[in-house]
């Protein structure tokens, strides 16, 4: 009868402008899909060139090389007898579109341009592409000569159409269109489309996966149908980590789930589903059928091909499954770890160096690297030849097999405790013990000689010697002395990153890791060009609260008992003199606010789009049990003063893993001035009026 269709979707670790590697991964995914009996294969958004090409989309080279890859795909025997749906940029009548190119047996069936472009948060698609605004309209697209020579076609359909095969009807959505309030799948479903496809470039944010899953399942819950989602995975050259989660859903229930975090460059998901289940599901929804009788039809591209076999009664079909979501602590353990691995192997460096202070933030960063080592050993154990080859190249040993995470950590991870006269023995011991438990190559050094030399130069030139506040100095003097220590640590971190392996008789250099969390960056509680200045920062988008929970997770799952004393110690920069050998400086006292309050300010400022006045109005209700309106006003004013005074620091913030939607990342996510009128006179006067 031809009821059971076998379809494949995938998550590919594509890399912007890596046309060679991207082609290889696409072909590998098609091979796997065919070997599992699939008759249709869906890939991620813009998979041919890689999603994160940014302003390279303006270049004609990007278009040319994309068509050259398409030529290779069309010619490949792997793409025969399977409908292939790939993503690439296409120039149509001098306008750039983000497109799906769908082909079968060396013939292009349809080029489908994206209708709703992603243009919020980290996305800037309207900068490079134009949305297709002609609903249910198809035009002729004149193919480049290199494609004409392969397909024998001069023109192909370009526009908003669906495919009609011998046994069913397929319609495409592209990423953002699923999230739009008027998603195309609604009208397509009413017009008889039974299989919806979505090629995504969707990145990881803590606690976001369930939203994507719910959207996919709800797409077919009201209207019936099969929904197939493909997604990019990995770090493709930027701050984002694309988190896979390829999935297939039918009639509102998930039937196949891909992994959210893994080191596999190619992951293919295949499901066999009964079309009659879609038809019977729709039969009972009278409101849907009434709406369908009035729908404006889509242009149909007829395809002389079937996704099912004539005699398929004995073919087993997939049953609904329960989606398993990771906890936020698991997400922190896995997402940044996979991002670090991609960055390490693609940058062709020999490992990481981390200034390990013995505090929560740098310890959490160290734990993420340790988790990365776990993931590498697990992938090699499971037979991942790509990971094994990368690991051997990184450690410069062609016979090496990473089996023990601690041993691998020793080879690729260097930690460094940089003591000063203001450092306590407690933090030194905590850093050393954690380094022993994760297996890193650990260095202890003292920066006092360098600090004295730098301050000495200032004293020689000016005849003045600055002093800490506890010794009678002004706050300006004390802050300058703290900043000298912090900046010298950055200079030493880069020196040791470049030459530590050389001193040990080993090749290569190390990437410097930063460890400032999202809350400290928002408040500006960091020295510009200190140890927060690094090559990359895996925790720069994660809150202090989540990092504490992650530390507890590492104690329980990695048996890192050294973290217990780190958890119980108050966070401190250790830049001011000790009192009776004990730390007198704490972060929250320095900041004038707690980390919990900072998270609330951050979410209201960015996610709730609140300026000073709106934030005050919201917080007098949220905090009505614990603060008077005057106290709320004082807290809000202090936050905005400190935020605006320090906003300039965000312009040089180390590239960080994006994990929170209230990140202050100045690169493209949180676009603000960096020179403010920090008195906020008009805004604060509005607050004072309400207080009175």
Automatic annotation (TrEMBL):
GO terms for cellular component: cytosol. Its EC number is 6.3.5.1. It is an enzyme of class 6 (ligase). It comes from the Eukaryota. Coiled coil: none annotated. Residues 5-275 form the CN hydrolase domain. GO terms for molecular function: ATP binding; glutaminase activity; NAD+ synthase (glutamine-hydrolyzing) activity. Pathway: Cofactor biosynthesis; NAD(+) biosynthesis; NAD(+) from deamido-NAD(+) (L-Gln route): step 1/1. Gene3D superfamilies: Carbon-nitrogen hydrolase, HUPs. One of its GO terms (biological process) is 'de novo' NAD+ biosynthetic process from L-tryptophan. Pfam families: CN_hydrolase, NAD_synthase. Keywords: ATP-binding, Ligase, NAD, Nucleotide-binding. NCBIfam families: nadE. Homohexamer. In the C-terminal section; belongs to the NAD synthetase family. PANTHER family: GLUTAMINE-DEPENDENT NAD(+) SYNTHETASE (PTHR23090:SF9), NH 3 /GLUTAMINE-DEPENDENT NAD + SYNTHETASE (PTHR23090). This is Glutamine-dependent NAD(+) synthetase.
């Amino acid at each position: 009868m031809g009821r059971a269709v076998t379809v494949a979707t995938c998550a590919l670790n594509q890399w912007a402008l890596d046309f060679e590697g991207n082609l290889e991964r696409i072909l590998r995914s098609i091979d796997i899909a065919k070997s599992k009996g699939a008759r249709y294969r869906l890939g991620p958004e813009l998979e041919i060139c890689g999603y994160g090409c940014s302003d390279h989309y303006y270049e004609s080279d990007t278009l040319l090389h994309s068509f050259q890859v398409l030529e290779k795909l069309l010619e490949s025997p792997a793409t025969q007898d399977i409908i292939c749906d790939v993503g690439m940029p296409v120039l149509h009548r001098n306008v750039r579109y983000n497109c799906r190119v769908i082909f079968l047996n060396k013939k292009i069936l349809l080029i489908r341009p994206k209708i709703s472009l992603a243009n919020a948060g980290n996305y800037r698609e309207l900068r490079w592409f134009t949305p297709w605004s002609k609903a249910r309209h198809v035009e002729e697209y004149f193919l480049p000569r290199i494609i004409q020579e392969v397909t024998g076609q001069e023109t192909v359909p370009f526009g908003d159409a669906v495919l009609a095969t011998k046994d069913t009807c397929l319609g495409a959505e592209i990423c953002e269109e699923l999230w739009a309030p008027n998603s195309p799948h609604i009208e397509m479903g009413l017009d008889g489309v039974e299989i919806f496809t979505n090629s995504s470039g969707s990145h990881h944010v803590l606690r976001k996966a369930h939203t994507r899953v719910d959207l996919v399942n709800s797409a077919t819950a009201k209207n019936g149908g099969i929904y197939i989602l493909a997604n990019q995975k990995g770090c493709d050259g930027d701050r984002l980590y694309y988190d896979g989660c390829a999935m297939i859903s039918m009639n509102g229930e998930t039937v196949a789930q891909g992994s959210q975090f893994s080191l596999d460059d190619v992951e293919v998901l295949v499901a066999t589903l009964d079309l009659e289940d879609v038809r019977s599901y729709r039969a009972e929804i009278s409101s849907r059928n009434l709406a369908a009788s009035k729908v404006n039809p889509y242009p149909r591209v007829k395809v002389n091909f079937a996704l099912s076999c004539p005699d398929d009664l004995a073919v087993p079909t997939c049953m609904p499954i329960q989606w398993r979501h990771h906890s936020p602590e698991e997400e922190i353990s896995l997402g940044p770890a996979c991002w670090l691995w991609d960055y390490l192997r693609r940058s062709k460096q020999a490992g990481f160096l981390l200034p390990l202070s013995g505090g929560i933030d740098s310890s959490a960063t160290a734990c993420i690297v340790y988790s990365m080592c776990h993931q590498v050993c697990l992938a090699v154990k499971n037979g991942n030849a790509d990971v094994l080859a990368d690991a051997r190249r990184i450690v410069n040993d062609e016979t090496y097999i990473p089996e023990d995470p601690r041993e691998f950590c020793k080879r690729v991870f260097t930690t460094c405790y940089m003591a000063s006269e203001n450092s306590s023995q407690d933090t030194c011991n905590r850093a050393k013990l954690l380094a022993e438990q994760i297996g890193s190559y650990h260095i202890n050094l003292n920066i006092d000689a360098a600090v004295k030399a730098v301050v000495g130069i200032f004293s020689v030139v000016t005849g003045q010697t600055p002093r800490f506040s506890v010794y009678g100095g002004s706050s300006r003097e004390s802050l300058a002395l703290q900043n000298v220590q912090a900046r010298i640590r950055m200079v030493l971190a880069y020196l040791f990153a470049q030459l530590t392996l050389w001193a040990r008789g080993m090749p290569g250099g190390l990437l410097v890791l930063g460890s400032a969390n999202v809350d400290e960056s928002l408040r500006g509680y960091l020295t510009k060009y200190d140890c927060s200045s690094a090559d990359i920062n895996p925790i720069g988008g994660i809150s202090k609260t989540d990092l504490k929970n992650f530390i507890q997770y590492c104690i329980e799952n990695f048996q890192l008992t050294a973290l217990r004393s780190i958890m119980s110690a108050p966070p401190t920069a250790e830049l001011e003199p000790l009192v009776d050998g004990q730390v007198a400086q704490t972060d929250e006292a320095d900041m004038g606010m707690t980390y919990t309050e900072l998270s609330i300010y951050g979410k209201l400022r960015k996610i709730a789009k609140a300026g000073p006045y709106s934030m005050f109005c919201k917080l007098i209700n949220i905090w009505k049990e614990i603060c008077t309106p005057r106290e709320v006003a004082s807290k809000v004013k202090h936050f905005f003063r400190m935020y605006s005074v320090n906003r300039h620091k965000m312009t040089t913030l180390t590239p960080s893993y994006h994990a929170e939607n209230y990140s202050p990342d100045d690169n493209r996510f949180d676009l603000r001035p960096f020179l403010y009128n920090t008195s906020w006179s008009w805004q604060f006067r509005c607050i004072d009026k309400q207080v009175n």
